[in-house]
Amino acid sequence: MAQVGKDIDLAISLLESDELVGIPTETVYGLAGNALSESAILKIYSAKNRPKFDPLIAHTYSIDAIHELVKHIPSKALKLAENLWPGPLTLLLEKSEEIPDLLTSGLPRVAIRIPNHPLTLKLLKKLSFPLAAPSANPFGYVSPVEAEHVNEQLGDKINYILDGGKCAVGLESTIVGFEGEDPVVHRLGGIAIEELEKIVGKAKIETNNSSNPAAPGMLKSHYSPGRKLIIGDIAVNAEKYKDKRIGIISLSEDYSHLAVTNFILSQAGDLEEAASNLFRALRQMDNPKLDLILTEEVPNIGIGLAINDRLNRAAV
Ligand code: TXA
Ligand code: MG
After folding, report:
1. What is the pLDDT of residues 98-132, one digit of tens each?
2. Could you give the CA distance from residue 90 to residue 63 in angstroms, rounded to a whole number?
3. Pick the CATH number of 3-205 from 3.90.870.10, 2.40.37.10, 3.40.50.300, 3.10.20.30
4. pLDDT in tens, 12-51
5. Most CB contacts within 10 A, which of 21, 38, 83, 258?
């Protein structure tokens, strides 16, 4: 198991020696290493068992620090950055020579974000390099939203996890690229489309799957909780599968009388609260006492789109 704590100096000395550290962000925990070091990047791919065609996000602490990592920032990208960073937004920008091809899987753009977590911002400010950090889960599994989740799955592969408590947003960042000046959303996430569009106007959404070369990591099947997940009318499906040991993830209704276990995402039906609980719920349902998981889509507004996206990928 990895050591867990708040020792930034220890994290710095590990990262400076190309070792990996689990770091908190407002979205999910990241598995961090020096984004400019091929040796650290290789360790990340290997610890996650992640294919090298799936590039990593570089994290830094200020827009100024980004200028040397990219060739050009479209004006709408700058507007988004100024309004939403630090925050759950990742921008795809044309990379400079500084960025190793291994980080971007040979693609011409690099994914960059400034995360909104005090401990990690402090860490990033003290480092002389950006941090590559994919979500700190084995490839294909649910992303971690607590330090303990990282330790459960990657604890034997890393030395240290910075403990920043529970992730406030609980879903990964929204990824936005640009066709010329026009924004294109490649992954739904913590920043709602409505919020983006208020700042830069209409955005195209292209989030489909692995055949989309702009976002190679958006595989259709992802976030797997380890057993079959069925999306639909919970009461109807509970009747249909009444001979099975059922786990239920519901938005706000109590179905505990129909299930071995029922995780309610938000009693009040609040979508932000539901998002922050979703990965914890999926993880809890990865339980040998269950045969299958029943769940339902939430309203397709705000962060609800990202919740439904993750549910549908977890269901494949
Ligand atoms: O919220 C987040 O973004 C978290 C925290 C730790 O910051 N990170 C995260 O990283 O979700 P990861 O590696 O699990 O997902 C990154 C996604 C992948 O789908 C990857 O394919 C895509 O970003 N991506 C990264 N670099 C890219 C690039 N240059 N072009 C296109 N897609 C890219
Ligand atoms: Mg991930």
Report:
1. 999 999 999 999 999 999 999 999 999 999 999 99
2. 12
3. 3.90.870.10
4. 999 999 999 999 999 999 999 999 999 999 999 999 999 9
5. 21
**Please, which residues have CB within 8 angstroms of residue 264's CB and are 6 or more apart in sequence?**
250, 251, 252, 253, 254
Q: Rounded CA gap, 125 and 107, in Å? A: 27
Nearest CA to ligand 1 atom 20: 217
Say which residue the tokens 């330790």 belong to.
151
Give the CB-side neighbour count of residue 168, counting CA atoms within 13 A.
10
> Is the CB of residue 249 below 6 angstroms from any atom belonging to ligand 1?
no
pTM of the model: 0.96
CATH architecture of 228-314: 3-Layer(aba) Sandwich (3.40)
Distance 187 CA to ligand 2 centre (A): 11
Nearest ligand, CA 120: 1
Q: Is 65 exposed, middle or buried (0-12, 13-18, 19+ CB in 10 A)?
A: middle
87 lines ligand 1 (CB under 6 A): no
Answer whether 248 contacts ligand 1 (Cβ < 6 A).
Answer: no
